[in-house]
Design goal:
alpha/beta; 27% helix; 35% strand
Length: 198
Amino acid sequence: MRIAVLALQGAFLEHKMMLHKLGVDSFEVRQLQDWQQEKDGLIIPGGESTTQGKLLHDLGLLDPVRKAIEDGLPVFGTCAGLILLSREVEGNSQSAPVPPRLGTMNMTASRNAYGRQLGSFHTEASFRGIEGDIPMTFIRAPYIKEASGEVETLSAVDGHVVAARQGNQLVTAFHPELDADTRLHEYFLEMVKDKITD
């Protein structure tokens, strides 16, 4: 198994370290040439979604990545990754042009949804498909305001949906790569294994 990690900006190294801890090979995607390597899944890290979207577009990665996801490549987006995968985003400036996004999941994300007072916080909550509560670190996090179609809610905190899945796409509003608990990355790797053995 080999996982591509989008390394344009944000917390990509922490995801690579988590995969290494689980004995899984990974490589960084910084340009189109990197993307053309063989891969079984993709992780889109937290960071600044507007910057990542612009770089995906400018580097010619936006369309090939979107096509691969639409063709079934398993993808795991955390925080900014959730925003990039959302079809709609609430909280973008009305006057600014809409930043480029992958937009492959039938949901609306609310950006920086928790506001400054809850800009960063840590909690534990249940996650469908994983036994026991898991640690969740939120940093200027979005949440999923609306979801439709095949989108399945996996976790909610204080009434807000913070994790969801649509087919081979998994998103969390929090940063599992910043905690020692490996269960969420294991959950994603099971999705990848299922796809490989299809």
